Amino acid sequence: MKVGVLAVQGAVSEHLNHLGRCGVNAIAVKEKAALDQVSGLIIPGGESTTIGKLLETFGLAESIRERCCDGSLAVFGTCAGMVLMADEVSDGLPGQPHLGLMKIKVKRNAFGRQRESFETELQFDLFEPALTAVFIRAPKIEEAAAEVEVLARLDEGIVAARQGLMLTTSFHPELTADLRVHQYFIEICKAV
Amino acid sequence: MKEQGTYRVKKGMAQMQKGGVIMDVTTVEQARIAEKAGAVAVMALERVPADIRAAGGVARMADPEIILRIMDTVTIPVMAKVRIGHFAEAQILEELGVDYIDESEVLTPADEQYHINKHLFKVPFVCGARDLGEALRRISEGAAMIRTKGEPGTGNVVEAVRHMRKVMDQIRQVLGKADDELVVMAKEMGVSIEMLKEVREAGRLPVVNFAAGGIASPADASLMMQLGSDGIFVGSGIFKSEKPELVAEAIVQATLHYDDPKILAKTSKGLGEAMPGLEMSSLTAADRMQERGI
To answer: Could you give all domains of chain A from N- to C-terminal order, each with its CATH number?
Structure first.
């Protein structure tokens, strides 16, 4: 089984390293040929407007949507990845491209600007003990449909959630040495 | 308990910019063009480096009015420049809520001996460097991101190439050194042995390293990425060109597909007149911004 990291822009090598440390065959996904080989895809943190635009320009967005529709691809989006996976972005730019893979409404930069960015010990429903979560100009989920399972909350917002094969976090598990969130995603990929 | 502005949070912000293009802008309209073209951040300025060069005199931090207007306009991060060593300007930018501060040789240095103690700030800093020693000294002062200095405002990539090659070459040298040899190298570079060990272990700079100073075309961006840059700063190259929208978009695409000549050939087409460039030998010693703050 191969797991890919979308290599358009952002923290690509960090995710590849984490997947490698979990013992998974990890590849960077820049074009459709690479996407076709993977069971799971991580959409890393970066700038959602940049990644979204380039996904559309180079035709990857449609391929990702198709694979998700027929249930042959698990997706894990961190930070900007969450914004791209949402079917609604409350403060997006007009015409901001996104993939619409989860029934969630996301607010960008929900915790403030870079100056307000932080790390914290986060209670996660799946894991004991809590994990150190790094939030960088992070988004949060304001509303989620019934079929979305909430995994962690912070300040009245949802910061981790799952819907079937789709997983998302507001924070960056690739920036700490803790592998538990990646391991959890790999289990989802195995079920594809 | 939330802990704001930790080094991991500051460094992480730069990691999220990798593979992206950061564009100099001086007006709200330019900021919009940059965001639409797919820039990962904008650098809010009163004048682009080419105009700073032409104007002469003392170049200072931009008017907060301009910076705030640009912050209100775009949703991507906004950076701004302070003079080397001018921690009061940096305090003002942090108060404004700027997302990243560039302690920059493009402005007139305020302190010829000391850089800003960047550990004291919650906002991350990027600093310029011409070699590994400079880069590691800035990191030890708290810089969370490094860029080549290049020679700003010239549209001539030659100095950025020199600086990136130098850093990469020195990193390769570090990789082959034994502990006792690192002691001498640390002394020569004016950095700590611990920092060199960190470089040896990671096989790279401990923070993100962008290219800056003279990048003016998609091919320039590709060249710098192939030499090992994590991303690209474009200063005067976009808004001093004939068709800024096209050039901005082309440089973003070239930075992503830097190793694909087929796409580069396509993105390089029909971009109009590039910014007029400067030959290095036409600059006097006083014109060379890269010698500031070493």
So the answer is: 2-189 (3.40.50.880)
